[in-house]
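Q: What residues go here?
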């Protein structure tokens, strides 16, 4: 009888342990199942947000302008040599800014200082705050027009879209939006960004250069535009 009692108690403990094991398995399944549902829900939420961001983003065709360019295309800007474009008529461009406001460059009548920039260009990004500060401090003479030509659009690189890039830097001046083929950039015979162009009152090219300038050079170019 004692042996049967011990066997019964052992069998009871075995059954109790087996039930505990099964309960633990069920608990773990519920736990992991809940985690899986939460992960799946998070993934769906991220996907929905991502789709929304993509739908709201601006494509190249949304941003690029459609400027009308007339006149002869300037010869490509030489490297380290006298510029044969100096004294030649500047290509006349009728385009728009990012808000659709009409912008004209290259025409005779008003001296102009132009800078050609690309939002993804690291040198342009470094120079932009300096240009903004110069303009805010009154560096531009009243009788000289300043226009930033936004060109070489690329929506796969940084600082897209370019209008947000300019706004974040505090630029509130005139901007001319180039087309998908960088037609204005090409018409002015430029090779890289940033590039600077000075157009005299008579509509002729007075200066072309590329690369980041020292802020003191902004004054020199603006004075060249004003005096010819």
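A:
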């Amino acid at each position: 009888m004692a042996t049967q009692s011990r066997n019964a108690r052992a069998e009871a403990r075995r059954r109790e342990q087996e039930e505990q094991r099964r309960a633990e398995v069920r608990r773990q399944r519920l736990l992991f199942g809940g985690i899986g549902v939460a992960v799946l829900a998070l993934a769906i939420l991220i996907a929905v947000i991502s789709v929304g961001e993509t739908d709201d983003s601006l494509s190249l065709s949304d941003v690029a302008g459609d400027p009308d360019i007339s006149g002869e295309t300037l010869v490509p800007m030489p490297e380290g040599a006298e510029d044969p474009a100096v004294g030649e008529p500047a290509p006349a461009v009728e385009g728009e800014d990012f808000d659709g406001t009409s912008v004209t460059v290259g025409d005779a009548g008003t001296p102009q200082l132009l800078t050609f920039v690309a939002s993804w260009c690291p040198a342009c990004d470094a120079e932009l705050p300096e240009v903004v500060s110069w303009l805010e401090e009154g560096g531009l003479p009243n009788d000289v027009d300043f226009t930033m030509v936004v060109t070489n659009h690329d929506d796969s690189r940084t600082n897209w879209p370019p209008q947000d890039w300019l706004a974040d830097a505090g630029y509130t001046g005139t901007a001319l939006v180039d087309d998908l083929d960088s037609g204005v950039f090409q018409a002015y015979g430029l090779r890289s960004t940033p590039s600077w162009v000075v157009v005299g009152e008579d509509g002729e090219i007075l200066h072309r250069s590329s690369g980041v300038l020292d802020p003191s050079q902004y004054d020199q170019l603006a004075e060249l535009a004003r005096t010819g």
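A: Context that may help when evaluating the design: The longest helix spans residues 2-56. The chain has a mean pLDDT of 86.
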